[in-house]
């Protein structure tokens, strides 16, 4: 048996198609959803990430603008920038490049972000809303993408045994809370756990968030398991790879996301969806 | 026979250690200060705040318990909190919950300065804890962590199953133990899980807080489990007819199969007040640059 492929690309296309009429409706009432990105310096990685976001924004009609501060910007400059954007009604979503340079107090900056504009859940105050199941905030985009993919492929979450590989890391723990909020029983595994197969084999849904190429192998997986691969790294062959050894595992699993074309293909679209939703909520 | 994890004894030990830390603070001219706010005259809350006051005084922590009339307005309450926030002699602040219904509890909790929020209820502390950053944590998960570690039980490589997913116990405990530095496999299990048995039987360390007396029986756990009970159920005693406190574990049944077990009462309960003192001392140390 071969696993059904959970295509992040297709889900992203669907979400974008659904966003277009919502954006049109907003525009008809005089509101263009806007996303502001704050970066420090000209890190090439950050710039190419933002380029991808700008392309996505353009495709669905979200306005976007990048605010570039010098690499040696002071705490005050950065905090002022965030406060200005909080107060700028053109922008419904704000993202800030991280990690911030060491001379800055990252926490103090992030906690200033207005919760209703914190579309990637960067602030601990937004995270608290997620943990305490309070409305008004947004979940971080990557873990949100996991739930979105499961929903779009009609995988039930309620009551399921979900194993999170790398569950002791920040992304994994947050995937855990999102699925727990949907009444899954969540098993947060440290990736160094001694008998991984014992845990992984009993998973109904397995989400891997480590970033170690092909660490989840076919002998660790049971037939029928739904596998969401969040990890991205370069394998020994230099190619981009997920945490899951895709070819052999896809012979056993029930459903599986590829890398690339899985979770990563959806996260930017989730960011757009959150921005549009923030604009709708602001109305 | 299982080892009884004695919360009273462990508490007493921790208090002895706290006295030394408080003495060290004294050497720097700092006396830790704890302020509590009680609104109204609910007898349960009144006796609980009294316990905290006594514990603080017994350790030499400066305690200022503020008792406000039940009909106080939200504005007056917030002003009181603000005053405590600005008081340099106060390192820790807690609100004795629940507040009377006309007051906005959430807004009041948010008004406490996160750096003085020794109960760990401010959203900034909740969020930071889940993001793996330093934060104040609620007393119950702290007490559970302390008692397990002080009896020498390893968490690394162990399967921990937490049957409770609320904001005061399950989630903060998971945020503490689902860390790479701890190395445990942590299961957060909603009590509604249809195959609960499959999870409880897996546990090397089982934490239960569902408030159902005798809910976890010996056949639901594996031999050698470390069983932690934070259930609070009041049942009439068959002989005296008086109410008595029992936990969620079938205590007598588990005694025979468990490696260790917390009793109710005398287990996690007595730890919680001590954990509030510990957090207060830590807050003072942070303020004094000692931590």
Question: Which keywords apply here?
Answer:
heterodimer; A: 283 residues; alpha/beta; 6-stranded parallel sheet; 3-stranded parallel sheet; 10 helices; B: 291 residues; Rossmann fold; 11 strands; globular
Structure description:
The complex is a heterodimer of chains A (283) and B (291). Chain A is an alpha/beta fold and 283 residues long. Chain A is built from ten helices and eleven strands. Chain A is globular and about 55 Å long. In chain A, helix 7 links the parallel strand 5 and strand 6. The model of chain B has no long low-confidence stretch (mean pLDDT 96). Chain B has 291 residues and is of the alpha/beta class. Chain B has ten helices and eleven strands. In chain B, helix 2 packs across helix 10, helix 6 packs across helix 7 and helix 6 crosses helix 10. Strand 6 of chain A pairs antiparallel with strand 6 of chain B, so a sheet runs across the interface.
What do the pLDDT scores of chain A average to? 95
Say which CATH homologous superfamily of the largest domain in chain B is assigned.
Answer: NAD(P)-binding Rossmann-like Domain
Task: Identify the biggest protein-protein contact and residues per side.
Answer: A-B, 35 and 33 residues
Backbone shape of chain B: globular
Largest sheet of chain B: 6 strands, parallel
CATH classification class of the largest domain in chain B? Alpha Beta
Helix share bin of chain A: 40-55%
The radius of gyration computed from the alpha-carbon positions of chain B, rounded to a whole number of angstroms, is: 19 Å
Which architecture name of the largest domain in chain B does CATH use? 3-Layer(aba) Sandwich
Uncertain segments of chain B are: none
Order of helices and strands of chain A: EHEHEHEHHHEHEHEEEEHEH
Q: Taking all residues together, what is the mean pLDDT of chain B?
A: 96
How many β-strand stretches of chain A?
11
| C-alpha-based Rg of chain A, rounded | 19 Å
Q: From the 3D structure, determine the CATH topology of the largest domain in chain B.
A: Rossmann fold
Number of helices of chain A: 10
Oligomer: heterodimer
Instruction: Specify the number of helices of chain B.
Output: 10
Give the terminus-to-terminus CA distance of chain B: 40 Å
Approximately what portion of the residues of chain B adopt beta-strand conformation? 15-25%
Indicate the structural class of chain B. alpha/beta
């Amino acid at each position: 048996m071969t696993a059904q492929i959970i295509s992040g690309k297709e889900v992203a296309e669907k979400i974008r198609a659904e966003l277009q009429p919502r954006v049109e409706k907003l525009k008809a009432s005089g509101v263009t959803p806007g996303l502001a990105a704050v970066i420090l310096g000209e890190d090439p990685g950050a710039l190419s990430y933002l380029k991808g976001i700008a392309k996505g924004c353009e495709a669905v009609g979200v306005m976007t603008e990048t605010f570039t501060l010098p690499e040696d910007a002071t705490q005050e400059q950065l905090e002022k920038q965030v406060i200005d954007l909080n107060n700028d009604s053109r922008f419904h979503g704000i993202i800030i490049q991280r990690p911030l340079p060491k001379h800055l107090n990252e926490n103090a900056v992030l906690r200033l972000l207005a919760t209703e504009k914190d579309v990637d859940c960067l602030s601990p105050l937004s995270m608290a809303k997620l943990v305490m199941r309070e409305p008004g905030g947004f979940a971080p985009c990557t873990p949100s993408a996991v739930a979105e993919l499961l929903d779009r492929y009609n995988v039930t979450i309620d009551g399921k045994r979900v194993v999170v590989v790398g569950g002791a890391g920040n992304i994994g723990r947050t995937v855990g809370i999102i699925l727990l909020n949907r009444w899954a029983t969540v098993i947060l595994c440290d990736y160094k756990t001694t008998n991984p197969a014992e845990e992984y084999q009993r998973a109904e849904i397995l989400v891997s968030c480590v970033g170690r190429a092909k660490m989840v192998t076919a002998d660790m997986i049971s037939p029928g398991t739904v596998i969401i691969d969040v990890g991205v790294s370069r394998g020994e062959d230099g190619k981009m790879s997920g945490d899951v050894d895709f070819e052999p595992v896809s012979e056993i699993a029930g459903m599986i996301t590829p890398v690339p074309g899985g979770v990563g293909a959806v996260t930017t679209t989730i960011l757009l969806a959150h921005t549009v939703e923030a604009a709708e909520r602001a109305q | 026979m299982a080892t009884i994890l004695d919360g009273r004894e462990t508490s007493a030990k921790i208090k002895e250690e706290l006295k030394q830390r408080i003495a060290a603070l004294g050497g720097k001219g700092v006396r830790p200060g704890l302020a509590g706010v009680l609104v109204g005259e609910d007898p349960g809350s009144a006796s609980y705040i009294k316990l905290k006051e006594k514990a603080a005084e017994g350790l030499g922590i400066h305690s200022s318990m503020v008792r406000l009339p039940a009909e106080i307005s939200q504005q007056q309450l917030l002003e009181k909190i603000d005053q405590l926030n600005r008081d340099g002699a106060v390192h820790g602040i807690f609100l004795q919950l629940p507040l009377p219904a006309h007051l906005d509890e959430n807004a009041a909790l948010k008004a406490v300065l996160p750096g003085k929020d020794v109960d760990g209820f401010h959203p900034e502390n909740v969020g930071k804890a889940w993001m793996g950053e330093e934060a104040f944590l609620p007393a119950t998960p702290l007490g559970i962590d302390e008692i397990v570690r002080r009896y020498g039980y390893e968490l690394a490589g162990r399967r921990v199953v937490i049957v409770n997913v609320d904001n005061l116990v399950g989630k903060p405990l998971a945020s503490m133990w689902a860390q790479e530095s701890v190395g445990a496999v942590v299961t957060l299990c909603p009590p509604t899980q249809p195959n609960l048995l499959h999870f409880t039987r897996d546990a090397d360390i089982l934490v239960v807080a569902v408030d159902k007396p005798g809910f976890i029986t010996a056949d639901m756990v594996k031999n050698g489990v470390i069983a932690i009970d934070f259930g609070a159920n009041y049942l009439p005693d068959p002989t005296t007819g008086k109410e008595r406190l029992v936990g969620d574990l079938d205590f007598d049944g588990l005694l025979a199969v468990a490696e260790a077990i917390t009793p109710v009462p005398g287990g996690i309960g007595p730890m919680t007040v001590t954990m509030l003192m510990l957090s207060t001392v830590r807050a003072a140390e942070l303020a004094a640059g000692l931590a």
